[in-house]
Amino acid sequence: MKRALITGITGQDGSFLAELLLDKGYRIFGFARRESWLRPNNASHLADRIEVLFGNMAEGVDISSAVQAARPDEIYNLASQSRPGLSWDTPAETLVVNGLGAVRLFDAVRHNSPQCRVYHASSSEMFGPSAGGPQDEDSAFMPVNPYAAAKVYAHQVARIYREGYGLFIVNGLLFNHESERRPLHFVTQKIAYGAACRALGIVDSPDLDEMGLPIVREGKLRLGNLEVSRDWGYAGDFVRAMWLMLQQERPEDYVIGTGKLHSLRELCEVAYRTVGADWRDNVVSEPRLVRPLDAGCTLADASRSRARLGWEPTVSFEEMVTRMVKAQVDRLRAAATHG
Ligand code: NAP
């Protein structure tokens, strides 16, 4: 039975990946902060099927202890401070977790488990604004936020350790991927939530935004720049690509994305249409919510992944948004029923 260690098991990707690997017969070790694991999280439903190792990616000793305890064949390093927007407020902490944490993990592998195969979560945010055309594995990095800068650091050290020490480390350059498990502070989930509030006639929402105000206030969802465009895919599809990367003969970096660009305005259109409403009556754009710098339009050229991994997305943009809205309707209904 293969053994896999997943950092960030409580997150969106960690929970989808754990389900996938359990289906494949893996023994799963999840690395999680104790306080996060002990409250309801994305992987709670798997609690009796996985073994949890408590620790923090900011602590080197926690990371090496987990690698020693799990003795994994594969590691998926998904833990990170994953919010580019928040990284403006916490640049140093973001670097410690996303940059140093990853490098400490690579070191733990080098000293304790050099045969282990490692997937590292890089990000399309590292590319920054598209200088022209879709981005592939050879496109230049131009990070425009502290999150992306920390990811570039870890990405480069992963490559250096692969070439210098001969470790099997793969960087996955994943474009945005969403699902019903995305936390509420991500704009895509806010839009799904806004549409769900509209469906249920909620004018002032129970959930609050980063400023402590209802996400839907006086019947309106308040967002920043609606013309921001991204290549959005479905998380369930993307974790399959992570696994495929570690099954290849030799380690290489891969871009994963759908190759289709959509704006937040389009996302609003689909979400509100799902509940029979017009987004223009329900969404307003506010300057205070616009990011200091935005990565602009980023579009994936996933030709290498399609050719070598045989990877294809299976869930469309419309289907993904519809699933997210329905999940938020169910969640709000359940919350209303249970008090
Ligand atoms: P997510 O849902 O925010 O999950 C992040 C995970 O990291 C959570 O389990 C979180 O645990 C854990 N974590 C954060 N700080 C930690 C710390 N100090 N110690 C231990 N664990 C910590 O993110 P995701 O969407 O699943 O993304 C997975 C990875 O892919 C991340 O590295 C992200 O940056 C990267 N990525 C994501 C996307 C995307 O569109 N989703 C795109 C490109 C790259 P808590 O529950 O304790 O917070």
From TrEMBL:
It is an enzyme of class 4 (lyase). GO terms for molecular function: GDP-mannose 4,6-dehydratase activity. It comes from the Bacteria. It catalyses: GDP-alpha-D-mannose = GDP-4-dehydro-alpha-D-rhamnose + H2O. Pfam families: GDP_Man_Dehyd (PF16363). Residues 5-324 form the NAD(P)-binding domain. Its EC number is 4.2.1.47. InterPro entries: GDP_Man_deHydtase (IPR006368), NAD(P)-bd_dom (IPR016040), NAD(P)-bd_dom_sf (IPR036291). GO terms for biological process: 'de novo' GDP-L-fucose biosynthetic process. Keywords: Lyase. Its cofactor is NADP(+). The keyword Lyase applies. Catalyzes the conversion of GDP-D-mannose to GDP-4-dehydro-6-deoxy-D-mannose. Belongs to the NAD(P)-dependent epimerase/dehydratase family. GDP-mannose 4,6-dehydratase subfamily. This is GDP-mannose 4,6-dehydratase. The gene is gmd_2.
